[in-house]
Structures are given as structure tokens and as C-alpha cells.
Amino acid sequence: MFDTLTSRLSGVIKNLRGQARLSEENIQDALREVRMALLEADVALPVVKDFIAQVKERALGRDVMSSLTPGQAVIQVVSEELTRLMGGQTAALNLATTPPAVILMAGLQGAGKTTSSAKLAKLLQERMKKKVLLASCDVYRPAAMEQLQSLSRQIGAEYFVADPQQKPLAIAQGALDFARRHHFDVLIVDTAGRLGIDQAMMDEIKALHADLKPIETLFVVDAMQGQDAVNTARAFSEALPLSGVILTKLDGDARGGAALSVRHVTGQPIKFAGVSEKPDGLEPFHPERMASRILGMGDVLSLIEEAQRGVDQVEAEKLAKKIKSGKDFDLEDFKAQLQQMKNMGGMSALLDKLPGQMSQAVQGGAVDDKSINRIEGIINSMTLKERRHPDLLKASRKRRIAAGAGVQVQEVNRLLKQFEQTQKMMKTLSKGGMGKMMRAMRGMVPGMR
Amino acid sequence: MLSFFKSDKKTSNSTGQPLSLAARLKQGLQRTRDHLNRPIAELFGSHAAIDAELYEELEAILLTSDVGVDATQFLLDDLRQRVKREKLTDAGQLRAALQQSLQALLTILQQPLDTAPHTPFVIMLAGVNGAGKTTTIGKLAHYFQAQGKSVLLAAGDTFRAAAREQLVAWGERNNVAVITQEGSDSAAVIFDAIHAAKARGIDIVLADTAGRLPTQLHLMEELKKVKRVIAKADAGAPHEVLLVLDANTGQNGLSQVKSFDDALGVTGLVVTKLDGTAKGGMIAAIAKTRPIPVRFIGVGEAQDDLQPFSAAEFAEALFG
């Protein structure tokens, strides 16, 4: 998602970290890099300028100069400002009104309004147990209404059938009336895509808004949008009192700078993100996670959540106990660890969420799902005794294991070396506890203090 | 996705006469020009001499137009060389020089599509979700019909709800046959369409496909399969693989071009929605990194607002 920005900022942060003192000059260098990175990520220039100014002001202030490690303090400032810009906390949908609660969708052509309308309906039905009616006011694009109708059928929501010969306002009024009489909790009104500069079309949606009095007016934005996001967002927010944003197509490889721009211009939170083509591919947007991901600190929270789902608690505790007791960490435990990793969705899924630098380091070491399977194969070719006591492994045993696993002896050796390193780390962990370990890792993870 | 119904109001000017090609392109690019020119005019006004600050501001303007860091750097380096070579001293001369640099960069993209060599000439369209593929097919059908060619549409987007209906609606409006199948897959529909085109002696087949993000690897594989199946229906086909790009797209446009080109061997681009406030600067970024010809640009919502790309007109509309 924000990968390129992540790696770029990671580079900047690395440069900063080595410096003992922070001069105005080297902040300047770092900020220029940050500026270019944000621009490359399609964050709009005015937003970038504001951001850089904020960071510079705070970085040059006492925040940094009184700090023991100025480099890290700057990173902290950048991180905090970015989080602030992305808008702190997850914002929920506001449905607190006399039903039906009307949700109006607005945005450019091809942003994903119709798909998002259906996804939102599904989410409201399933997670909030709401009775949802969908209506389309897109009388312009051929078959736009059929699209929403067919999506409604897919997700099992009710669709308000209307004639495309009617005026959008008449359709919306009809739908609202229908929703009232049939006691729907929520009415989602999809609209035609329009340009912010198309006065006639903007007047039309203004009229829709005035008549429907929606409690939520959601602006739908394509995550791939470039610099112009700032202009479109301004045009829409000037015409309509927006209450939130849906960021679509986040499953692509766009750097997603539009998220920052739109948030900055509209002042409204991004409430949902479209993360797949499937009808359930709409998720609550987590701004703080996104900000830390941008900064190369990885989506650690999601990683933890995933870990909790995938890890066998009993196994994990057994391992933790073993480490605590200071007993030797053997190949059997090593294998168990690999197993846990596989349960968590495999290496590639994990790498995605790791901080930029670390994931690059791991990728450099060519650890992928395939090599994990290979390592498992090698361990499986050992006897239980050999796994418990790796010291036993001498040349002839290694040859046998290599033949059994169908690999070269060198690979067995490489595995043993990796295992030794892990063993060493585990020993440090049991002796010095977490604190020591974290200190050892501090050089690896950007933004960690 | 642009709408056709409300487009009539934009096809003609106040006298009722249709606008010329150049005029319509210019009108479509007005937004881009407004954006680029205003700050540049300010620049050239406020700076008497050529200095570092001027270049810095110029850089920012190109960047905000989605030109991208690489292409911006390239254009500025080129501009600096011109300044040295031609001994330019006045900031005002920079405007013409920059326009020349941009035009030189874009010229490589200007290669019109020639459909004469094959009958039927099979054109496959691909792109991300919401780029405007189906709408572009509608406009292309109109464009080729206006040249007296017969056209057949293949409703290859079998995934998105009502994509088929959207294409059929378009076909009806322009009296073009649309080949569709209920519950079939993309490759099969297009295969059928090519056979139908051969039987009916049709000149041009336009094959729609479902939108997909390049990160969806299985869908990219499916697209490769569609292309292979097209080759089975007619050796040598598809004769043109068009990638449809939304002008609103930022630097991701480049990565779209790369991914689709790596998967399919893209032979041409269509840049849509240039009538909005989007600057379309990523064309320059594409010219710099992966120069695939821009066959058409969409500069309005009317059926005939699809124009062949011209580097000179584009550069002139931006700076002239």
C-alpha cells in the first residue's frame, strides 16, 4: 500500500539516526527527502508544505534540542504530525437519528461509489443488524442502476426499483418515502459520478442533499488519485457538508497519498477503506495504523491481531516457559516456531506488515514460504534425539539428513547456523529479559526508542 | 465512467456548430492549462532573472501536475541545458523552452493507431477498476463508425455487475452488435465475438475486460489467458492491446503501465477523464520510463470527445 513511501522514509530516518547533534542544516536535508517522498506518494503539494512547516517548527523547538537523541526526536515529530494529519482515531458511522438514517454517496466517475454502496449495505446488515434499502440516482451512466440492483441481490439487501427516465430527485424522494413506510433503518443513496467543476451536476447533488437531509454524506475517493485529489475534495466539500470519506481500491499498490490530501482538505475522517473486490471488502479505516505504516514502522497492530488469531496459545506458552526457565532452545522448538509462523498466514503476509527496513532485511536473506518448507523438511529428516541435541550432528548424520530431505549438505549446515543464532538470541532473552532484547533491536527498527 | 446521456450540451458551442478537433481538445485541456499556466505566468512575472528559486518553483508545479519526480528532474535538466546552450537570460524565455522540452519528451508517444493491416482488427482493452474501459469502448465504436468502419463489441467484463448491460445499452444507442453470453467467462465471449466478426466481415472488434488491480495476481493471469485465447481465435490477434488510464491517477499510473505491459505486452494507451481538473502529467512520466504510445485521450463526456493524441497540441495546451 504505502510501501514505497515507507522505504523512502526509512532511508531518511536511517540517515538522521547516526547524527549526534541536529543542526538546522541536516533537518533541512531530511525534510527535503520527506517532502519528495510525500510528493512521490501523490500527497498534494499544499498538504506537503503545511506538513513540512509543522514538522520543522516543532523539530527546531525545545522538543528536540533538550532531547538526548535529537534524530529520534525528529522522527517522533514526523510520526506524530502524520498521525495527527491522518486523524487520530477510527471514526464510526453516525446513524443516530430517526430512522431511516440516510447515507448519501458522492464522488468522481469511477471512484467506486456503486460498489462501495453495496459493500456498506452488507456491512451494516451483518455487523450492525440494520435493515438497509439501496437506491440509485445515477440516471446517466448506462446500466448503473442495474449494477446496484444486481449487487443488492448478491448481498441480500433490498433495492428500490426506479425508472431511469425519472429525475434523480424524484427517485430519491420515492426511495425515502418507501424506506419510511416499510420501516428501514438505513437508506443508502448512490449518485452518478460527477466532476467538481460541472456546475449543473453539483447543483443536482446539492438539491439531493437539501431534500434528503442525510445524516452521513460520504465522499468516495480512489486511493490511486494523484495531486488533483486536493482540488476534487475541495470542490465537493464546498458544495456539500461532507461527514466522512471512503477510500477505495486500497488493495492496489498505490502509495495512497490521496488519503492525506483528502483528509487535510475536507477535515472529515476517512471512515472506511475498500480492500477487495468482494462484497465484504470494506473495512473500518485505521488512521493511526496507516500513519505508522507510512513512517516505516509497519502495521504492527494488525500483525499482533493476526498473530493472536493464528498462534496456538498452549504451544506459545510452552515455548515462553522454556525460554524463561533458561533451558536450551532446541531444534524441536525451532520447528514449532516455524509452524506458528505458517499459521499466521506465511512469511509474505507477515513481511507486508513489518517495518520497511526489517522486511527488506528479511527479504534480502531470501526467507520466503518456500525456504521455510525446506527448513521444515530438513528438521523432519532428523531423529527426535538429534533435534533435542543438535550437537550430535556430525558429518555422516548430516549426509543422511541431507539425503532424506533431498537437499545439499550445505543447506543442512546453513540451517544449523541459523538455529545457533536463534539459540543465542533466546539465551540473551532469558538472561537479560525483554529490555536487553529491545535495546539490541533498537538499531533495527526505526522509530523505536 | 462517463455518461453519454447528458453529453449533448457539450458537443456544440453557442452557435450550434460542432467544435473543431483542436478546439475541443483545447477546451478539454483548459483545466490543465489553467492550472499550469497561472503559476507559471506568475513565476515569469515575478522573476526577472533565472535563478535557483525559479527552478525550485518550476519543479513544484510540474510535480503537482502529476508529472512525477523522475520526469520532472529530466525536464528541468533538459531546460537547464537549453538555457546554457541557447544562452537564455530572461525568465520569460523559459516558458517556450519548457514547452519544447515537454513536447520533445512526449513526441515518442504520438503514434496513431492504424487498423488497416488486419480484418477483423481485434482490439483488447484492459485497465484498473473504474478507469473508464466500457465507456472508452463506446467512444471508440463511435470513432471507428464515423470513419465508415463496421464495429463489433465483445462484452468481456463478465465480473462486474451490469457491465454487460452497460455495453449493450451502448450498442443499442449506436446500432452496433454486442456479443454477450450469460454466465460465461471473458475469454469465451471474446472468442465467439471474433468468430462472429469473421463470419460477418466486420472491420473492428472491441473486446472489453473486467477492471482489475495489478496486485491481484490471479486476475492478471486470467487476463493473460484471455489474450492467449484471442490468439487461438485469430492468429496474430489481438492486434492492439489498449490500457485505459484515468487521468486522475497519480504516480500509480506508471506502475499500472508497467504491470499490465509485463503481463500483456500493452501496445497503446488511452488516457481518460482529461476534462476534469486532473492535469494528466503522468503522460510525461510514462514517456520517460515506459514509452508506450498514447493512442487516444478522453477530453469530454460526449461520444466524440475521444481524440487521437498529439504531443504538440498537448504541450501547447499545457503551456501555450
Question: How do the strands and helices of this protein lay out in sequence?
Answer:
The complex is a heterodimer of chains A (449) and B (320).
Chain A: H1 3-17, H2 24-40, H3 45-60, H4 62-65, H5 70-86, E1 101-107, H6 113-128, E2 132-136, H7 144-155, E3 158-159, H8 168-181, E4 186-190, H9 199-212, E5 216-222, H10 229-239, E6 244-248, H11 257-266, E7 270-274, E8 282-284, H12 287-294, H13 300-310, H14 313-325, H15 331-343, H16 346-353, H17 356-364, H18 369-380, H19 384-388, H20 395-405, H21 409-442
Parallel strand pairs in A: 1-4, 1-5, 2-3, 2-4, 5-6, 6-7
Antiparallel strand pairs in A: 7-8
Helix pairs in contact in A: 1-2, 2-3, 3-5, 5-12, 6-7, 8-9, 10-11, 15-18, 18-20, 20-21
Chain B: H1 8-11, H2 21-46, H3 52-64, H4 69-85, H5 93-106, E1 121-127, H6 133-146, E2 151-154, H7 163-174, E3 177-179, H8 186-200, E4 204-207, H9 217-233, E5 240-246, H10 252-264, E6 268-272, H11 282-289, E7 294-298, E8 306-308, H12 311-319
Parallel strand pairs in B: 1-4, 1-5, 2-3, 2-4, 5-6, 6-7
Antiparallel strand pairs in B: 7-8
Task: Please characterize this protein's 3D structure.
The complex is a heterodimer of chains A (449) and B (320). With 449 residues, chain A is α/β, with parallel strands linked by helices. Chain A has helices at 3-17, 24-40, 45-60, 62-65, 70-86, 113-128, 144-155, 168-181, 199-212, 229-239, 257-266, 287-294, 300-310, 313-325, 331-343, 346-353, 356-364, 369-380, 384-388, 395-405, 409-442, and strands at 101-107, 132-136, 158-159, 186-190, 216-222, 244-248, 270-274, 282-284. Chain A folds into three domains: 3-85, SRP54, nucleotide-binding domain (Four Helix Bundle (Hemerythrin (Met), subunit A)); 101-287, 3-Layer(aba) Sandwich (Rossmann fold), CATH 3.40.50.300; 304-440, 434 Repressor (Amino-terminal Domain). The radius of gyration of chain A is 27 Å and the shape is extended. The model of chain A is unreliable at 1-5, 296-301 and 433-449 (pLDDT under 50). Chain B is α/β, with parallel strands linked by helices. Chain B has two domains: 27-109, Up-down Bundle (Four Helix Bundle (Hemerythrin (Met), subunit A)), CATH 1.20.120; 121-309, 3-Layer(aba) Sandwich (Rossmann fold), CATH 3.40.50.300. In chain B, strands 3-2-4-1-5-6-7-8 form an eight-stranded mixed sheet, with helices on both faces. In chain B, α3 packs antiparallel against α4. Chains A and B meet through α2, α7 and α10 of A and α3, α7 and α10 of B.
